[in-house]
Design goal:
98 residues; mainly alpha; globular
Length: 98
Amino acid sequence: MLRPTLLVLLLAASLPNLHAQKWKKYEVQADTLLGQENYEQAVKLYTKAIKSSKLRTDDAYNSLYKRAVCFYYLDKATAALTDLEKFINKFPKIYQSR
């Protein structure tokens, strides 16, 4: 009886890691598209990464910053500024915020 309980606990403990991996995969794919200057598709994947991560960690905000860069290259200044505002509010002292 103890074994199934232990298995359930181990599976439950691994769920946050699976979730983290999912948004990170979106970000890595979007980074590739950004490097290829495929900004429209990169925005879609960065958006998936942002939604999936729910910006729970500081690391997840990288997708927000990179999506702002994509919006800038797509001449979508308002969207870029919206993302940058969120990023700057979270990290006011880092160099990208200046």
